[in-house]
């Protein structure tokens, strides 16, 4: 009964157009009413206590770091380095987008921030060079989702808080799968870019120009190294890594590159504050149904429903992946995590599946949802900045979407591709 009420109220609230945060609150209140536990004071306490979680402080810190990087010249120098290294190859600007996307993902932690940056800087260059605009935009959208997979990922922070999993372990476990997806995107781009026969290639950079681009970007490249090494050796927690990233990016932007003035900080902090407020309100709203999910033993009810596949981990993972993908297609990344993580992590743990491994698959699946209709948040960002029709962009995204789904199935079939590299990074 509790599961039916939970799903029914959630779907009804979404269908009438209620914002996701309010839909989550309604779910929690409905469960409280069903179980005879309704108490306004408990609702208020859950909202306040969840927003005061120390690990969640990483979210505004990494959001600020991402804003500073885009405004202070770090992102631009990463793209310039990618152009110097691979811009001259056939389909070179596509490889630049992938290379730059991987590096930006290790800086910002946000798929939306990476999509905005890459679209504004690279899409006009690709169109001028003769690349198909829809495929170029589709590639940029597809590589931008790595921002939610490669650390420092804001999505992993939310997942860790919602499920109780180690954020540091999630960060380290996301590195190799993120690089694997980037490799798959390279193969997909190589296959589709051969159609662009009249593309104007960039001149090959000389050794001196490449060295200059590398030296110019070295301050930006040091940041992911500092974060990963700090997490790996336990020098910093994920929250402290966010503080380090923010301060480091601010110092480099103002004192080294000198592209960010202190008078620009008001607008920058305002943008970061608006983004943080939206995420934190979702987290706070989700605390009520998360608490009631435990009280009503909804994970136990789901285990009873899927008992026939509990003894087959791969089949169970496939069923859960299909469920997550279906929900992530109609819901943004953060609400999907907050809704499903408290339910599904206990289920996979009971089935004997490594919860960190599942967390990585969960995040990849939710990230793919960012470039699938009907919502496709990253697609909307790329379409808006690139002034493209949503339907045309979706068509251009399709080959790269297929590549990412194939990698997801590969990771389901061979869990060692996640578990073994995660063990290397954690040693």
From TrEMBL:
Subunit structure as annotated in this protein's UniProt entry: The complex comprises the extracytoplasmic solute receptor protein and the two transmembrane proteins.
An example Gene Ontology CC term for this record: plasma membrane
Entry similarity comment: Belongs to the TRAP transporter large permease family.
Protein name according to UniProt: TRAP transporter large permease protein
GO molecular function: transmembrane transporter activity
Keywords, in A-Z order: Cell inner membrane, Cell membrane, Membrane, Transmembrane, Transmembrane helix, Transport
NCBIfam families referenced in this protein's UniProt entry, alphabetically: dctM (TIGR00786)
């Amino acid at each position: 009964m509790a599961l039916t009420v939970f799903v029914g109220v959630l779907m009804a609230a979404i269908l009438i157009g209620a914002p996701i945060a309010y839909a989550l609150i309604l779910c929690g209140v409905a469960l409280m009413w069903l179980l005879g536990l309704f108490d306004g004071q408990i609702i208020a306490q859950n909202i306040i206590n969840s927003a005061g979680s120390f690990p969640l402080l990483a979210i505004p810190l990494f959001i600020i770091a991402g804003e500073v990087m885009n405004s202070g010249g770090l992102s631009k120098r990463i793209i310039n380095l990618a152009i110097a290294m691979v811009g001259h190859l056939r389909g070179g600007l596509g490889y630049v987008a992938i290379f730059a996307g991987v590096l930006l993902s290790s800086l910002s932690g946000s798929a939306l921030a990476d999509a905005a940056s890459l679209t504004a800087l690279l899409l006009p260059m690709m169109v001028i060079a003769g690349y198909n605009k829809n495929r170029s935009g589709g590639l940029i959208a597809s590589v931008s989702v790595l921002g939610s997979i490669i650390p420092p990922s804001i999505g992993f922070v939310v997942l860790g808080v919602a499920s109780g999993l180690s954020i540091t372990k999630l960060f380290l476990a996301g590195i190799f799968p993120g690089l694997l997806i980037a490799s798959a995107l390279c193969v997909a781009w190589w296959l589709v870019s051969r159609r662009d026969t009249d593309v104007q290639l960039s001149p090959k950079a000389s050794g001196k120009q490449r060295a200059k681009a590398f030296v110019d970007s070295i301050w930006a490249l040091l940041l992911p190294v500092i974060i990963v090494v700090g997490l790996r050796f336990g020098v910093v927690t994920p929250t402290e890594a966010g503080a380090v990233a923010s301060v480091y990016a601010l110092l480099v932007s103002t004192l080294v590159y000198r592209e960010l003035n202190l008078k620009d900080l008001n607008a920058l902090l305002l943008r970061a504050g608006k983004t943080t407020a939206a995420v934190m309100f979702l987290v706070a709203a989700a605390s009520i149904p998360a608490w009631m999910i435990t009280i009503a033993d909804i994970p136990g009810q789901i285990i009873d429903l899927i008992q026939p596949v509990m003894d087959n981990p791969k089949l169970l993972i496939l069923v859960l992946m299909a469920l997550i993908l279906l929900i992530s297609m109609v819901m943004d990344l953060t609400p999907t995590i907050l809704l499903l993580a408290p339910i599904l992590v206990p289920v996979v743990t009971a089935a004997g599946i490594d919860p960190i491994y599942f967390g990585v698959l969960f995040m990849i699946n939710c990230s793919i949802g960012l470039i699938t209709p009907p919502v496709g948040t990253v697609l909307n960002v790329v379409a808006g900045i690139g002034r493209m029709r949503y339907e045309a962009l979706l068509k251009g995204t399709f080959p790269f979407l297929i590549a990412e789904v194939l990698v997801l199935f590969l990771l389901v079939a061979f869990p060692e591709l996640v578990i073994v590299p995660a063990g290397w990074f954690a040693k």
